[in-house]
């Protein structure tokens, strides 16, 4: 009931902003129940002239889906990685080619049938048709990765609230995906326990740390500050009095928070990511490095921790390929939401990206004052 109520509230907000009724929706699916595997399909070309048609492609993909899965699992995605026509490998689109034997390598993303069924039921009870269920890591990749990164090979790490999605692209295709049951909320809980404050206060402190420029004091360098009592005295304190915390905290040591509380949890997350990369068998095949996105990507020290633990180039991924997004939405926290919009509008792709008429429509319908907050609320309504 709580899930349905939350979805209903988000739906009503989205409908008010768009000025239209929502009849169908794409739903983001995440959680530790997500798993993946690669499969292979083979069929004989049906046409007498041996020209491969779209129906042959559909048949070979269906053949790749014919894997043994327990009844508790449901297939979310069947993503072709590459085709083979009569032993000719590396075929991206076989339609129009001639051959006798058509093969495909695919990546299957599966989820817990019960979790998927319950999520679908919550949405359908509100009178909304579910057009598709989308793995969160796939949605994030659509918004944050470039085609070049995917082609060269890249690891996407989406640090969400309760989980971290890992998606590995090799030769342009999603080839491995998994979900780690640790996310940004664990960092917040660590701060709450270490400082003996509420989760709400800990979250505010975490966000402030992510917005505060890194101090040289963390590197054991002396820095003069206005509040220092003498030359060379170290000070890495941050002022949290302006956050309005009920615990009435004022000054905190940035070094203690980052090195003593946040850093160990980040190291744990990226150590687990490293194990997933090793388990995938694609280690060394991702020269584009690592792209970190999701709300947790804004955690102080995240990029440095990833570089140290994974020994690869790392940068933060922001939503791309959509014009008209305001600055407040151009943050890692909204990558999955923007990716869902891209997934739903993938038929409208152009070389310059995608432009959603809906954004301009919304802008025309609301006053300029407060527009940023309203647009943020709209995008949040699509967040998992």
TrEMBL record:
Keywords attached to this entry: Cell cycle, Cell division, Cell membrane, Membrane
SMART domains referenced in this protein's UniProt entry, alphabetically: FtsA (SM00842)
Q: Which domain of life is it from?
A: Bacteria
Q: Which GO terms describe its biological process?
A: cell division
Q: Which InterPro entries match?
A: ATPase_NBD, Cell_div_FtsA, FtsA/MreB, SHS2_FtsA
The answer to whether the entry has keyword Secreted is no
Per the record, a Pfam family? Answer: SHS2_FTSA
Q: Where is the SHS2 domain?
A: 1-144
**Could you state one GO cellular component term attached to this entry?**
cytoplasmic side of plasma membrane
The protein, known as: Cell division protein FtsA
Q: State the organism of origin.
A: Candidatus Gottesmanbacteria bacterium RIFOXYB1_FULL_47_11
For this protein's source organism, the top of the classification is:
Bacteria, Candidatus Gottesmaniibacteriota
């Amino acid at each position: 009931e709580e899930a349905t109520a939350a979805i209903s509230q988000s739906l009503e907000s989205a409908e008010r902003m768009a000025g239209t009724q929502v009849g169908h929706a794409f739903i983001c699916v995440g959680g530790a129940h997500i798993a993946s595997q690669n499969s292979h399909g083979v069929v004989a070309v049906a046409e007498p002239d041996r020209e491969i048609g779209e129906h042959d492609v559909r048949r070979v993909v269906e053949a790749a889906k014919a894997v043994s899965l327990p009844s508790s699992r449901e297939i979310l995605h069947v993503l072709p990685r590459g085709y083979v026509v009569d032993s000719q490998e590396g075929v991206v689109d076989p339609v129009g080619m001639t051959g006798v034997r058509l093969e495909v390598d695919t990546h299957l993303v599966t989820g817990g049938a019960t979790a998927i069924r319950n999520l679908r039921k919550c949405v359908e009870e509100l009178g909304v048709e579910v057009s598709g269920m989308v793995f969160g890591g796939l949605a994030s990749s659509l918004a944050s990765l470039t085609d070049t990164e995917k082609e060269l090979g890249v690891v996407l790490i989406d640090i969400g609230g309760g989980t971290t999605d890992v998606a590995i692209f090799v030769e342009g295709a999603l080839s491995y995906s998994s979900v780690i049951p640790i996310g940004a909320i664990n960092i917040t809980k660590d701060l709450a326990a270490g400082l003996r404050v509420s989760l709400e206060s800990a979250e505010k402190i975490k966000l402030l740390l992510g917005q505060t420029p890194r101090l040289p004091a963390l590197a054991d360098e002396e820095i003069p500050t206005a509040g220092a009592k003498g030359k060379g005295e170290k000070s890495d304190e941050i002022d949290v009095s302006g956050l309005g915390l009920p615990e009435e905290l004022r000054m905190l040591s940035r070094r203690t928070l980052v090195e003593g509380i946040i850093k160990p949890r980040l190291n744990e997350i990226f150590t687990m990511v490293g194990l997933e990369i090793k388990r995938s068998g694609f280690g060394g095949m991702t020269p584009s490095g690592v792209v970190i996105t999701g709300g947790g990507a804004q955690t102080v020290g995240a990029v440095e921790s990833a570089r140290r633990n994974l020994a690869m180039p790392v940068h933060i991924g922001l939503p791309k390929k959509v014009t008209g997004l305001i600055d407040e939405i151009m943050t890692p926290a909204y990558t999955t939401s923007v990716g869902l919009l891209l997934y739903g509008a993938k038929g409208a792709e152009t070389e310059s990206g995608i432009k959603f008429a809906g954004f301009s429509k919304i802008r025309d319908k609301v006053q300029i004052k407060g527009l940023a907050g309203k647009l943020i609320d709209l995008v949040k309504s699509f967040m998992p």
